[in-house]
Structures are given as structure tokens and as C-alpha cells.
Amino acid sequence: MALKKSELYSSLWSGCDELRGGMDASQYKDYVLVLLFIKYVSDKYAGMPFAPITIPEGAGFRDMVALKGKPGIGDQINKKIIAPLANANKLSDMPDFNDATKLGTGKEMVDRLTNLIAIFENKTLDFSRNRADGDDILGDAYEYLMRHFAVLSGKSKGQFYTPAEVSRIIAKIIGIREAHTTSATTVYDPTCGSGSLLLKVADEAAANVTLYGQEKDAATSGLARMNMILHNNPTALIVQGNTLADPKFKDGSTLKTFDYVVANPPFSDKRWSTGVDLLNDPFERFSHFGTPPDKQGDYAYLLHIVRSLKSTGKGACILPHGVLFRGNAEADIRRALIRRGYIRGIIGLPPNLFYGTGIPACIVVVDKENAHAGKGVFMIDASSGFMKDGPKNRLRDMDIHKIVDAFNRRMEIPKFSRMVLFEEVEKNDFNLNIPRYIDSQQTEDVQDIAGHLNGGIPSADIDALGSYWRIFPNLKKALFQENRPG
Questions:
Q1: What sign for the dihedral angle of Cα 13, 15, 21, 23?
Q2: Residues 334-383 pLDDT 10s
Q3: In what order do the strands lie in the sheet with 237-240?
Q4: Is the Cβ–Cβ distance between 364 and 302 less than 8 Å?
Q5: Alpha carbons 207 and 308: distance in angstroms, whole number
Q6: Rounded to an integer, what distance in angstroms lies between the CA atom of residue 254 and that of residue 284?
Q7: Which residues of 445-466 are buried (b: 16+ CB within 10 A; e: fewer)?
Q8: Residue 50, SS3 per DSSP
Q9: Strand 309-320, strand 361-367: pairing
């Protein structure tokens, strides 16, 4: 019998309930997601020859079940399950299942871990037979948990997850679907978090591509590695480290370059310059366009992306709106990038979409392959297209389609999108603030008091539909007759 997503989600959230009292969401997510991972790989790969994931003898989910109710269960999980599995598959920074400060001591720890394991024992959670073709049920469940953990983790810890709707937009506008992709096609995320953005781009490609990611936070990089495996991308290379100070992907002494680069870096990172040689960067990220302010890291990440792209590469980066209009060193960098023709487009997003902040952000689209000096920038103001979803805003499918269609087809839509030529940007001193170029103000809704009191449709409202009457010149006369003047 097929596994229903609602049953899976309910079981996983029950697992969260077992842990919720002892720690905050940013901590207990690690335990639930690791158990989900162990259950999935045990069901799918245990005993399989040449499997992409190695399940050492005695380190599968069944072996974890055998530890239920036993004293020292946390220590035994660490030694017999977690350590062998992590060593065999180069997984690091796994949670400590013997941490008394989070899981309690003595019988409390035994009961808590026993109950947690029992939830994943549910026979309906059999991942060996319950993955439908084209339906990534495990990946969906993982993203479900990540999204809820991001909401519960609050501002300081929600940054490990990029909202799926924003990831979908980026995946659809960088041109990977139309490209002739192979396993030699490379996609890189220098601040990959839990890996959701990388995976969305990979899903959009017509063939399997090779994924690379670097993440500063050790625990989150571990989540990203597991996320890749759960989404059937076990060969993705995820490394831990500070991308700006210590980039791990290099060709000799220079940065490795990629076909596509996507990123959702920390907004306005005030510590970005720690460990970075600003004057003599060995990777020449700042020598061609200028050095970003040492307390404002947005352009540091963007310039790292530019440097990491092949000459035919394309990329997209989520940044706060300030990068479009801030002055001084950032204005100089912006001017140089526009003059080089690297900035292909700007997409302004609604506020309160992201879990780490409520400020509005934008997507900066970079295109080296089609860079032409003096061409212009395609702009979209999508700030008003969203729905409320609890404390956050969410993009609807209709909002995503409108953004993607307008961008990919270069559709000029009044109050929404237009191609801004280089000359106009130059006249505005290379300020890219979207309201300078797109007037998205809605016309005031004028109320006709006589119409409200006496009935009928105001003539002004009918006349406002002039585009229809031009197409169907006899329709207005057929539909309406005047009751009184106006």
C-alpha cells in the first residue's frame, strides 16, 4: 500500500513532540532528521551491492531498534550506529544522542529515545517500497520538517533553509532547463545551508548534473549531505568551511569555476571580512570591481559568485534591497558590474518571505555568457504578489509563474516588469532601486456614493474597461443601458 504523505508528516511531527520539551527547534531538528535519514538509507540500501551509501554491519535502523529500553542507549547509539555510519560515508557533525543537557538523564533519556525510535518503526514508514515514480516523498517530508523548523527556530537560526518557492524561481530563470546538460555540468552554492536551493536547480535540469556546496555551519553542512542522499544525489560534494575566508573548491591556486552558481548568503554579513585579505585577495575576487565595505558583506558574496562562474556561466543570488542603491564602495562595484554587462536582471520579492529576516529581498541574476556592455537590466517588481501564511508571506503558484514567464520571455507588463536600458540606468547614476524604473503604485479606488445609494454601475468603472470595448466594439452597448447620468 502506498505511503500517504499526511501519515508520514504526522509521524515525523510526533517525533518532534518527543523532544520538544528539552531543547529548542534548532537543536531537536538534528535528532529527528538524523533518524529519518537512518531509517531511509537502511530501508533503501541495506544489503544492496554497490549502493551509493554504505550501511556497516550492525549500524542500521534495526540495530537501533534493538537498543530500545536499554540503559546507556544514547551512548550505544553514538558508538554502534552513528559513528560507523558517519565514518563509512564521510558524514560529520552528527548530533550527540548521549547529551544529557538535551535528552535528560537516566530513565528520562532511555524513555525519550525509545519512544522516538518507536515512531520510526511504524510499518507504514517503509521506504524500501513506497517511493512513487516522480514523487519524491522523502525529499518532500524532509523539506516539510526543514520549513517548520525554520519557522520555530526564529530569526537567528532560520537561515539554513531557503523557501522552496524562491528556490523554484531561481531554478527556472537561470536557464538550466533549456541547456544541454550532462553529468559534466556543474552547479555550485557557496552558502548552501541545508542544500534545498541546490536540489531545486538540479531538479530543473534535463539530465543529472554535478552538485557542489560549501556551508560554514558544521551541523547544517551535515544536514545538507543527508539532504543530498535523501534526494537521490549521493555524489553531491558538500564541504564545511567559510567560503569567503577559505574557499574549498579550487583549481590549484585559483577558484574552481562552474556552469551555474546560486546562493542565499547571510544578509549584510558584518563579519564577512574576518580572515579575508582585503588588499591582496589571492583569488582576485575584488581586484576587478572593487572591495566591499568590511562591515557589509553582500557584494563580497556576489563578487565571489562572479569569480566562480565560467565565461559561459550563469548565476543568481538572493540579496537585500540595499545592494541596489547603497552608495560609496558598493556604488562603485555596482557601476562596474553594470558596465561590464554582468547583471542580467533584478527581481524584487515581497517582504517577510525569509525565515531569518522580515526585510524584502531581491534576486540578482548574473549572466557572463550573454554579457554585453551597455545593454541594460531587465527588472521585475513582484513585491505585491503573495499570500499570508501565518506569520510569514508565501508566493503562490500564480506569482511564481508570472515572475518566471515575464523574466524568461522578457515580457514588459505595466507596473510589474520592463527592460531598463543602460542609458537610463546611467542617467540615474547606476542606482538600481526598482521604484525608480517601475511605478507599481495602484490607482486609487474611487467610490461612487450615488452608485452605492441608488444602485447601478458607475459609468467611470465601465469606461475603465476600454481595452475590452476596443476589441469588442458592440459589446458595451449590448450589455449596458443608462439609468441616469453617470
A1: negative
A2: 999 999 999 999 999 999 888 767 788 999 999 999 887 678 999 999 99
A3: 237-240, 210-215, 186-189, 258-263, 309-320, 361-367, 343-348, 376-381, 417-421
A4: yes
A5: 22
A6: 9
A7: eeeeeeeeeeeeebeeeeeeee
A8: coil
A9: antiparallel
Q: How far apart are CA 357 and CA 351, in angstroms?
A: 9
Helix (H) or strand (E) holding 315: strand 309-320
Question: Which residue, chain included where needed, has cell 507588463?
Answer: 413
Q: How far apart are CA 37 and CA 223, in angstroms?
A: 10
CB 146 within 8 Å of CB 12? no
Q: SS3 of 218, please? A: helix
User: pTM for the full model?
Assistant: 0.81
Pick from 351, 364, 385, 379: which is nearest to 436 by CA? 379
d(CA 165, CA 400): 7
- Concatenating the DSSP letter of every residue in 374-434 gives T-EEEEEE-TT--EEETTEEE--HHHHHHHHHHHHHT--BTTTEEEEEHHHHHHTTT---G
- 3-class state of residue 480 by DSSP: coil
How many CA atoms does the CB half-sphere of 460 hold within 13 Å? 7
Which residues, including other chains, have CB under 8 Å from residue 88's CB and lie 6 or more apart?
54, 55, 56, 59
Please, what are the domains in the chain?
A: 5-149 (1.20.1260.30), 154-436 (3.40.50.150), 449-479 (no CATH)
Model pLDDT for residues 426-464, shown as the tens digit of each residue: 999 999 999 999 986 666 777 888 888 888 899 888 888
